[in-house]
Amino acid sequence: MGSPDDFNRVMSVNAKGAFFIARELQSKFTADARVLYLTSSVGEAYKVPYPFYAISKKALNMVYEVMKKELKGILVAAVHPGLVKTDMYHVQVGKIPGFNERIAIDPSIAAKFLKFILSEKVNAKEYSDEIWSIYNLHHQPRWLEEGDEAPGQQG
């Protein structure tokens, strides 16, 4: 499962850092600034055998809720970019029982999604309304380009 030091490290990276960086940078934000937290659906429903990661992402979801209120005049959002084929993915993927590799997303597709969220195509109210998900079929036609493979639903 992991040690207390492992737990503290994961919490520092995924939750504490996100909270304190935004707070420290608050005075530097311009009027059109947008803060975007990269969270995970694992923070909403524990699906994989990584409890520290799941707990830290749940905490990050609360950081998002708190910062929406604390960062007055700044747009704050959070996103589930999906299971992206990163270095962490390649190291961990074989350890997840019953894992279906077909749901993994190419980084270029995840990048298009993040670019869309941060663009002017997303208005201020919509930006902060809810945690964005790359798997949300409602938004996909707005950011996927012809020929892109739509990210499939997890699980």
Automatic annotation (TrEMBL):
Keyword Oxidoreductase in record: yes
Gene3D superfamilies for this protein: NAD(P)-binding Rossmann-like Domain
SUPFAM superfamilies, per the entry: NAD(P)-binding Rossmann-fold domains
Pfam families: adh_short
Record-linked PANTHER family: NADPH-DEPENDENT ALDEHYDE REDUCTASE-LIKE PROTEIN, CHLOROPLASTIC-RELATED, RE15974P
Taxon lineage: Eukaryota, Sar, Alveolata, Ciliophora, Postciliodesmatophora
Superkingdom of the source species: Eukaryota
UniProt GO MF annotations: oxidoreductase activity, acting on CH-OH group of donors
Keywords: Oxidoreductase
InterPro entries from the UniProt entry: NAD(P)-bd_dom_sf, SDR_fam
Family statement drawn from the similarity comment of this UniProt entry: Belongs to the short-chain dehydrogenases/reductases (SDR) family.
Name of the protein this chain belongs to: Uncharacterized protein
